[in-house]
Each structure stands twice: as C-alpha cells, then as structure tokens.
Specification:
Elements (H helix, E strand, L loop, with lengths): L1 E5 L2 E5 L3 H7 L5 E13 L3 E7 L7 E6 L5 H4 L7 E10 L6 E12 L14 H6 L8 H23 L3 E2 L5 E2 L11 E2 L26 E3 L4 H11 L1 E9 L12 E10 L3 H22 L1 H10 L4 H9 L4 E4 H9 L17 H11 L4 E4 L21 E6 L3 E8 L4 H10 L4 H12 L5 E7 H9 L20
Parallel strand pairs: 5-7, 8-12, 14-15
Antiparallel strand pairs: 1-2, 3-4, 3-6, 4-5, 6-7, 9-11, 10-11, 12-13, 13-18, 15-16, 16-17, 17-18
Helix pairs in contact: 4-6, 4-7, 4-13, 6-8, 11-12
The protein binds 4-amino-1,4-dioxobutan-2-aminium adenosine-5'-monophosphate (4AD) and magnesium ion (MG).
Length: 471
C-alpha cells in the first residue's frame, strides 16, 4: 500500500489489480477499488470477485463475517463498487493470489435495474447502453487491445524514424474526391444569406468559403513528407457515406504514413510489416484478452494471427484478381467486370477462400480511384494498392502519388477540381518534386481483424453511423 502526500494530508493510494498480479507483493497490505463481478455469501465468510478494469483478471476477496458492515456489503448486487483493504495472500485456487479483507466499504450501490446483472447479454443490446460497455469483460478487453494497438502504431513508426504529424480536421478540400463530406458552418441553418439566384453565399460563412470535416489527412501529410522524409498521421476522419454496414463508420480513426522517395512496392511492404507488428504486439501485451477472443469471439483466432504474423502477404494486380474471380465459378451478386470496384463478396472470396489470408491488390483502374494516384503508362490503371484481410476486407488503401505536375494538373482538370483550393498541393510538384507514396489504415478495421469482433460498432467507444449519434 502506498501513501502519498496531497497538500499535507496523508492519503492511501489504491493498488491496481493488474499490478498485484504482476508484482505479487504477498503479505503486504493493499487497497483495491472496483466493481463486483460476483458475490457468494457463506455462513461465516463471503467470496467477492472484484474487477477494476486494469486488466482482464479479477481478484478474489475473502471477507469474514466479523467485519464492520458485513450484513450490508454482502447484500450488494453485481456492478456495485467497493473499496477493500486487506492482506494479499497466496490462494489455494488457480488465481494464485487473493485478498484477506480487513475492511470493506461500499462506494456505490447498484439497484436491481442494473442492465448488466445477467450474463450473456447480446452485443446488439449492449450497443444501446454503450456507456456501460466498458464494465463488461468483452468490451474492456477490446478497448485494452485498441489501446495497445495505438501504442504499437507509435512504436512501429518511431522505430522507423517517421515523424508524427497532426493534420487539420477542418478543411476546404474534398481530398478523396468522393463527395462524402460533412459540412461545417456557422451560418443560420434556417435562414442562410443567399444571392439573387437563391444560392447560399459561402463567403459569409465562418471561414469565408465552404468548409468540411476532413476525410483524410493525406494531402497535408504529403507536404510534410516532401520536407521531412517519412511522416505519419493518426487522427479522426469523417465520411458521410450512407453505408450502413458492419465495416463503415461516419467517424473513424486512420493512420496515414507518407514516405518521400518510396514507390508502391515499398509502401506495400511497409503496410504488411505494420499489420504484422500490430498482431505480434497484441499477442505479446494482451495474452488474456486474446485468449478471451479466441474462446468466445472467434475460434482459432490466435493460430490464424500467428500464421499471418510470420508469412509473406500475397500480392496480385487488380487485373489478376478480376481473372481469378471470373474463373472462380462462384455466383456473385455483383458481376465481376474489369473496371468496376471489387465488392465485399469479391474481396471475401479472395481473402477467405482463394488465398485464405491477407492479399495485396495493386494497379486498379484509374476511373475508380482518387485523382492524386500515379498514372501507369498503360493509360488505364494507377499505382494503387489495397490490403485485404479475411473477415474484414479492405484494411489499408494506398498509392504511389502522381509527382509530375502536368499529369496531376491535367487529371484535376478532368475531374473539375477547384484549382485555387489545391494550388498549394501542386506547389509540391513545382518545387523539387519527388516520387512519394503512402497509405491509410482504418484503425477500427485493424481492431476488428485482431480481436475477431465482426461489427465495427463494437470496436470504437461510441460509434457514429447514419441516423445514430447517441452518447
Ligand atoms: O481507402 P481510403 O479511402 O484511403 C484514403 O483515405 C487515403 N487518403 C489513404 C492514404 O493513401 N493516405 O481509406 C483508407 C482506409 C480504408 O482502407 C479503410 O480501412 C478505412 O480507411 N476506411 C474506413 N473505416 C471505417 N469506416 C469507413 N467509413 C471507412 N472508410 C475508409
Ligand atoms: Mg479505399
């Protein structure tokens, strides 16, 4: 038990259950605070199982009936919060340690209506009480893994000498050219200033022009790569696409590395290395959580991930992928035609059935990809790559960027992009232009893949999807 001095007052600091298992200070006096997972009352003593969220492990407390308030605290229901002082002792059971209580205090009681009293509540139901999800075994495990994957991300890129750049969230650019933007405006929504033709005068808006939430930080990351070499962003991105699927969010987090002097092959390798790094990190740092997913979420998860972490990713071109799909003999809902984007069912076939593992697909038709991608000499395809993984589909999207001013400028004209907004981006090609490449990894999709959880709403603390913005 630690004592800390706050403004002259002696205060006992609580021990994290995680630390108790790590350090096992047997015989010492400890103070723990947490929520009741179960309470079993016997004649002369009770067993309380407590969890404080610091790890997957609960701790068992033995409380004798001579303790103060015994009748009161043993009536507490699951989910009530307790403070326990006692001695950490070795236990007979398989938990290895337990606490012999010398004092038990009720911090917060739970009435009968507590929705998490019963075991086996569905994930759909839990989504409606997302604020209580962190109290469950499954969700606290998911979010501890999410935390570790964020740490792994910074470690991975730092070790490779990438600089972490914070790109803006507010923007005037539709950087992916897909038109899936959320408008940001301070104009009076009911009565905005309009010109004689009835068009809104955006010049009168806060930024003096139309503005939005970013769909990517890529273009700004390119500016930094073309000066600092290797950089990455890690931030929230927003898309108003009307996709009510298990893989799409309106607000999601993306990691976007951007590397000067790198071509598509280098960036594809970086992407697969990064995914493997995250897998190894999760398996090493979160063994208890991974075991839970392996038993209750996806059987065989650990074995599958181990395999992916240690084998090379298959790489094929889009044209080869189309060929495989057309010759597969499968009856797909959407026909496979050269020139149209791969649908989920097509991606699934490639990863889950044909290759049974992650696949890197390169050189997509230019018409289905963004304006900034490097054009191939065939005049039909661009140097794009997607990394697809089993169960999730596209986890990474990236490309080599068009570094030639004329070609980029012409493509932007073809697509009708407003030159004044993107002129700074063309400057990167006017002054000391270099080949450069990068990708974006959807963080939630990575969490889904590594935990086996198959709905994206269950791997982000509070999901934003069409018609849903509670909490
Ligand atoms: O393929 P996307 O649209 O690529 C870009 O945004 C590029 N600017 C990245 C780059 O080259 N720097 O998105 C990248 C990844 C996808 O592969 C997917 O994993 C994820 O972001 N993603 C989403 N995740 C959740 N919900 C959505 N609505 C998503 N849209 C894309
Ligand atoms: Mg994409």
């Amino acid at each position: 038990m630690y004592y800390v001095n706050i403004k002259g007052m002696s205060k006992v600091k609580r021990n994290l259950i995680r630390k108790l298992y790590d350090e096992k200070p047997l015989g010492e006096k400890v103070l723990i605070k947490g929520w009741i997972k179960s309470l079993r009352k016997n004649k002369s003593f009770s067993f309380i199982i407590l969890n404080d969220g610091s790890s997957q492990k609960d701790i068992q407390i033995i409380a004798n009936d001579d303790l103060n308030g015994y009748d009161e605290f043993t009536k507490c229901l699951i989910g009530s919060a307790l403070s326990i002082e006692g001695e950490l002792v070795e236990s007979q059971g398989n938990q290895a340690i337990e606490v012999k209580a010398s004092r038990v205090e009720i911090i917060g009681k739970t009435p009968q209506e507590y929705p998490l009293q019963k075991k086996g509540t569905s994930r759909e139901f839990l989504r409606e009480i997302a604020h209580l999800r962190p109290r469950t075994n499954l969700f606290s495990a998911v979010f501890r893994v999410r935390h570790e994957l964020a740490q792994a991300t910074h470690q991975f890129f730092s070790e490779k000498n990438f600089y972490y750049i914070h790109t803006p969230i507010l923007t005037a650019m539709d950087a992916e050219g897909a038109g899936e933007l959320f408008r940001v405006s301070t104009l009076d929504a009911e009565n905005p200033p309009k010109d004689k033709k009835g068009k809104v005068i955006w010049e009168k808006d806060y930024f003096g022009r139309e503005s939005f939430l970013c769909v990517t930080g890529q273009l700004e990351a390119e500016a930094f790569a073309c000066g600092m070499g290797s950089v990455y962003t890690f931030g929230p991105t927003f898309r108003s696409e009307n996709s009510n699927t298990t893989r799409h969010l309106s607000e999601f987090w993306m990691i976007e590395p951007e590397v000067a002097f790198a071509d598509l092959d280098e960036i594809a390798e970086l992407g697969s290395e990064y995914i493997q790094y995250m897998i190894k990190h999760a398996l090493e740092k979160c063994p208890d959580e991974m075991k839970l997913f392996n038993s209750f979420v996806e059987k065989g998860l650990i074995e599958r991930l181990e395999k992916v972490a240690h084998s090379e990713f298959t790489k094929i071109t889009y044209t080869e992928a189309v060929d495989i799909l057309q010759k597969s003999g499968q009856s797909f809902e959407y026909a496979v035609e050269w020139g149209s984007d791969l649908q989920t069912e097509h991606e699934r076939f490639l990863t889950d059935q044909h290759f049974n593992g992650p696949v890197i697909v390169t050189d997509y038709p230019r018409e289905i990809k963004a304006f900034y991608m490097k054009q191939n000499d065939d005049g039909k395809t661009v140097r794009a790559m997607d990394i697809l993984v089993p169960g999730v589909g596209e986890i990474i999207g990236g490309s080599q960027r068009e570094e030639e001013l004329d070609k980029l400028s012409q493509r932007m004209d073809e697509l009708g992009l407003e030159k004044d907004i993107y002129d700074w981006y063309l400057d990167l090609r006017r002054f000391g232009t270099v080949p450069h490449s990068g990708f974006g990894l959807g963080f939630e999709r990575a969490v889904m893949y590594i935990t086996g959880v198959n709905n994206i709403r269950d791997v982000i603390p509070f999901a934003r999807t069409p018609k849903s913005i509670s909490f």
